[in-house]
Amino acid sequence: MSALRETPLADTHRRLGARMVEFAGFSMPVQYSSILDEHAAVRKSAGLFDVSHMGQIHLTGPGAVASAERLLTRPVGDMRPGRVRYALLCNEDGGVVDDVTIYRLSDDALFLCVNASNIEKDYRWVVRHARADAQVRDRSDETALIALQGPASAAVIEPLTPLALPRLRRYRCAQSEVAGVPALISRTGYTGADGFELYVDAARAVALFEALLEAGAPRGVRPAGLGARDTLRLEAALPLYGHELDDTTSPLEAGLDRFVALESDGFLGAEAIRRRRAAGHPRQLVGFELEERGIARTDYPIQHAGEPVGRVTSGGPSPTLGTSIGLGYVPPSLAGTGTRFEIAIRGRPVRARVVETPFVRTVDRARPDSSPRA
Amino acid sequence: MEEYEIPERLRYTREHEWARLEENRIIVGVTDYAQRELGDIVFVELPAAGTAVEAGEPFGVIESVKAVSDLYAPVTGEIVEVNSGLVERPEAVNEDCYGDGWLVAVGVESSDEYEALLDAEAYRQHLAETKR
Prior knowledge:
The structure holds two protein chains of two kinds. Chain A is α+β, with helices and mostly antiparallel strands.
């Protein structure tokens, strides 16, 4: 195995006593103190995350927007500079290459924020399908990404930036400064909470992270790791690539209909997605809650009337609800809210019930321009 | 190396369980090192009283937010008591792993297996090697 990559904040994580784990080839903080405490901080105050492992693929030039429209499941041409949109990159079979966030920077410049595990794959995919008059550049290494997530986020950043933060609505971004560090400030996140994602030059990441920690300390802001990021996104029922999504999954099976402009013919995979829908999907992603004690983990079988019918894709405790929740694929006939099935936990069937998602509602109510991920 | 609490009066396994002899039964729990490595404990699955357990074999499961780990029996015997308080408060394992966070009591006929477990000094050595 090759050596793990580090983010520009590796020394800061060590100084803060983080426990580091491997994730998508990176050494990343999984927790600093306690996943539950960090989760609670995001729900009540705010948590500060290093998500610099995520990738940024830039498209520039006269063909940038047309290339993006060919690649992505939603229109890009109607996005004004400063708009952010969640969408999928799909292959010709309608499977998901990656789920990404599109940032429209100007008339002829945009970038995709992509999952760390898919940076190389996405880059090759974008290069292969981009027009000749668009330049594609992977700027992941030179870019750090710091997320401040939770209800106190705006109050923490506001005194540190000249930007009129209250006017920056959800899924908008603006170039400005935070604590003297030039940053693209984006009102997005992956926790189901209000919050910001700050794209900065890798060399300035430590200064910004430490300034935010210090400014947030009086409000109970704490550094938060990938462990809390995962419990938070699960409560918000946001998909994680490699769990809910992969190269074979149609975005419609994953319930991402509102992020797919199905009437459009222009994007890769559109025809296959329509064809698969017309043929009837064999499975549908659902959220469930356990009705007995136990924790549903990834890949545990889902069974109904003693027969295997599907698999858990993500599961765990919901610290906010105090229940045990999960996501998984089942046949459409078992996908209705209130439907009961069992999760086989170490061979023992544990009763579960399909519930509405998100499990925890904070922001990101279903509106056309909101996103399940950023 | 981080300092872990390793009470002198207890015996230990290489899998980070502790054992304490009380007349003809052995109280079993997980060590301070184990609870810190696991992080927030959210679920503990233990066998019912009357279940036979075998030294070195898994007898239950402990789950943190992120991970599922097996619990290994330090001695062979029969479960005579289970810490039922952990059903409602699994976090007791984090808060007091050598006290309220105990897991099970195993009835034994002799103390031979118990005597053969690691003592505090040997466990400290084992930890030092594990952490290196």
